[in-house]
Amino acid sequence: MRLVAEGLSAKRGEDLIFHDISFEVAAGEALVVKGANGAGKSTLLRVLAGLLPPEAGSVRIDAAAHTVERPCEACHYLGHRNAMKRELSVEENLRFWKACLGDLQGGQGLAVDAAAAMVGLGGITHLPFGYLSAGQQRRIAMAKLLVAWRPVWLLDEPTAALDAAAEEMFSGLVTRHLSAGGIAIAATHQPLGLGGAKELRMTGFAGLAEDAW
Amino acid sequence: MIALLVRDLRLSVRAGGGALIGVLFFMTVVAVIPFGVGPDLNLLSRIGPAILWIGALLASLLGLDRLFQAEREDGSLDLLLMQETPLVLIVFVKCLAHWIATGLPLVLASPLLGLFMNMDEMAIGATTLTLLAGTPAITFIGAAGAAIAVALPRGGLLVSILVLPLAIPVLIFGVSAVHAAIEDPAPFLPPFLILVALNLFFAVVGPVAAAGALRLSSD
User: Fold this and answer.
1) How far apart are CA B72 and CA B91, in angstroms?
2) Structure confidence by residue, pLDDT tens digits, B31-56
């Protein structure tokens, strides 16, 4: 399986954020997107997730076993916001996403308890999500990646608000996902501790201004 | 989809869910009318069905703006947009949950409030029945308005204004069906069946429009 992006450009309002970005990530590979604030990392991930229409170019997933109609259906998206309800308990949140997302063909998600244990928060699934600290909330959002199988993980600043131990835990999760034949695309400033990851440097609007005019 | 329904129902009864806000508003509106109109029992029983319908209409518009805004604020909407499940179906299920949490209590409270308005059993029964048939339509229309205003920080009143013109036919046929049931010569069934038809029509059109608006709203 491969994720192929060809000639992607995207706009925010009237301004072109990036222009003609192409890359290819195969199963078991990770791509780290780097760049200064405002370089378009988040925008790129939202385009890949199908949440923002690209100005030009296309994203597709080449898979031998199964085909998906839209590439975003094969993706997990971990954005800045955790997509969890503060009023519901951690277990109710994870159980909902497990049932709602469902497993894509070719893999199986973990049980809710097992996923919570994987992120080191096995004992507190009965608490309302709103009672957790920022770092714990982020870890639970990561557990959401584990409860339903998606081959592609799109991670936007995944380790913000995490301590060093949790960062290590998270790079373990990503490595495990890659060894299961997954793909990870992460926008980050911190080193994720992924050996042999490809790197994509975004220059942002400043780098484009000369080309455009 | 069952999971989404159960989650939304759970959320509506937890802190800040606002399931009972609509009923409280409905009761407030209907309870103050007799004080304002005065103790003319005949007048009260004549305007009773219309007051109940207007109260229910305004009460069901009350919580609509949060339908998608809450999902958008915590990022859940992004994930729902990415799924293989058609967005129209997701919107439909959310409307259904919203109606069960906020519309159904209004229907259940209406017989009690009918007594406040000195309505007889026939009028109370007809009002409850027409509210049962009509309030889902208001929710489905409201979903389209809520989806359009999803990105606006204080879109509450805007949703009501967008939605109100479309909800007027529901109000007209709801009240006229009740009047037909009370006053003998007019037949009850035609206006009631039009009300049901409006409900079915908006059950299809509302979610489709809302899904389209949500797709365009993501940034």
Assistant:
1) 13
2) 999 999 888 899 999 999 999 999 99
Which residue of chain A has the CA closest to B9?
A88
| B107-158: pLDDT as tens digits | 999 999 999 898 999 999 999 999 999 999 999 999 999 999 988 878 788 8
User: Residue A149 in contact with residue A107, Cβ under 8 Å?
Assistant: yes
**Nearest-Cα residue of chain B relative to residue A79:** B75
- The reported pLDDT for the residue numbered A213 is 42
B45 within 8 A of B123, measured Cβ to Cβ? yes
Strand partners, A24: A4
Q: What is the DSSP code (8-state) at residue B153?
A: T
Q: Do B74 and A92 touch (CB under 8 A)?
A: no
Range of the domain at A28: 2-212
Residue A103: predicted pLDDT: 86
A51 → closest Cβ in B10, B16, B78 = B78
Q: What is the Cα–Cα distance from A20 to B10, expressed in whole angstroms?
A: 46
**Is the Cα torsion angle A168, B75, A109, A151 positive or negative in sign?**
negative
What's the CA gap between B64 and B147, in Å, rounded?
Answer: 10
Tokens at A87, concatenated: 């009023």
CB contact under 8 A, B218 and A87: no
**Alpha-carbon distance B172 to A59, whole Å?**
50
Helix, strand, coil shares of chain A, percent, nearest 5, are 35, 25, 40
β-strands A56-62, A198-201: how paired? unpaired
Q: What is the number of structural domains in chain A?
A: 1
Q: Is the pLDDT of residue B104 over 60?
A: yes
Q: What is the mean pLDDT of chain A?
A: 87
**Residues A108, A87: contact at Cβ < 8 Å?**
no
For A67, other C-beta atoms within 10 Å of its C-beta total 11
> Quick check: A88 and B7 CB within 8 A?
yes
Q: What is the pLDDT of residue A131?
A: 93
User: Which site among B78, B81, B219 would you substitute to test the A interface, given the most A Cβ atoms closer than 10 Å to its Cβ?
Assistant: B78
User: Residue B64: phi, psi to the nearest 5?
Assistant: -65, -35
Q: What are the beta bridge partners of residue A4?
A: A24, A60
Alpha carbon of B84: minimum distance to chain A alpha carbons (Å) = 6
The answer to whether B7 contacts A49, with C-beta atoms less than 8 Å apart, is: no
Please provide residue B30's backbone torsions phi and psi, each rounded to the nearest 5 degrees.
Answer: -70, -35
